[in-house]
Amino acid sequence: MVLDLLRDRGVPAAFFVQGTWARAYPHAVQRVVDEGHLLGCHSYWHCAFPNLTDEGIADDLSRSRNQLETFAPTDQWFRLPGGVGIRDPRVHDVVRASGYEHVHWTCGGDDWNPNLTAGALVAPILAQARTSDASACVPLFHSWPDATSAVLEAILDELQSSVQFVRLDELDPADVPRCKPHRRSRLSLLRARTRRTRL
After folding, report:
1. Which DSSP symbol is given to 13?
2. What is the pLDDT of residue 194?
3. What is the pLDDT of residue 135?
4. Phi-psi region of 10 (alpha: psi -120 to 50; beta: other; left: phi over 0)
5. How far is the C-alpha of 184 from the C-alpha of 132, rounded, in Å?
6. Structure confidence by residue, pLDDT tens digits, 136-154
7. Which of these, 71, 13, 66, 26, lies nearest to 43 by C-alpha position?
8. Any bridge partners for residue 76, and if so which?
9. What is the CATH number for 83?
10. Nearest 5°: CA angle at 146, between 126 and 79?
11. Number of compact structural domains in the chain
12. C-beta of residue 72 within 8 angstroms of C-beta of residue 33
């Protein structure tokens, strides 16, 4: 289990938890907090946020906050379900108005795919950790795939003697990966309209 491995190695992590999952597995969430990991919000229902209205996004985040705050504060720390909406200005605006800002990842995230071998999952994470500032390497894992513990163990075996593992909130704010939404300038909008008019 991922929590057992992190405990045995003395490595902190950030767990972005869905409100519904926290409601179903409160003991696991309490263990995350008790063992010193950062608790973050991963929505309540795990819906694609661009498909929700502004009110729907705000309600989802409110429900999740109410559920997770029984364990620890989650303000600021949020990861969009599936990363869907990372470039959507409307989604970012509502998320920010709800007290959060999307935290992205820099590598990993494919441990859910049963067609990928452990070696294929480990290699890009090791490559990034070795070639970039360690504070900028933020890999994404999921707690439920069978491969995750083996992949994480291999990464710790390779890097723990040379890399310092820290929680997201221990990074310099400038090193926390965040995706900024695409906001089109007035000029580009005018050009787009002009092209459509000519068609």
Report:
1. -
2. 40
3. 53
4. left
5. 30
6. 688 999 988 888 999 999 9
7. 66
8. 100
9. 3.20.20.370
10. 65
11. 1
12. yes
Beta carbons within 8 Å of 131's beta carbon, 6+ residues apart:
none
Which helix or strand (DSSP H or E) is residue 196 part of? helix 186-198
Find the domain containing 87 and state its range: 2-198
* Residue pair 105/142 in contact by the 8 Å Cβ criterion: no
Pick from 32, 28, 41: which is nearest to 13 by CA?
32
In tens, the pLDDT along 84-103 reads: 999 999 999 999 999 998 99
Query: Phi, psi at residue 59, to the nearest 5°?
Result: -65, -40
Picking from 109, 39, 48, the residue whose alpha carbon sits closest to that of residue 76 is: 39
Token pair 């309209």: residue: 193
CA–CA gap between residue 104 and residue 181 (Å, rounded): 12
Written in H, E and C, the secondary structure of 161-183 is: CCCCCCCHHHCCHHHCCCCCCCC
How confident is the model over 60-72, as pLDDT tens digits?
Answer: 999 999 999 999 9
Are the beta carbons of 28 and 53 closer than 8 angstroms?
no
Give, in order, the Cα–Cα distances in Å from 148 to each of 19, 114, 152.
Answer: 22, 11, 6
The pTM of the full predicted model, rounded to 2 decimals, is: 0.85
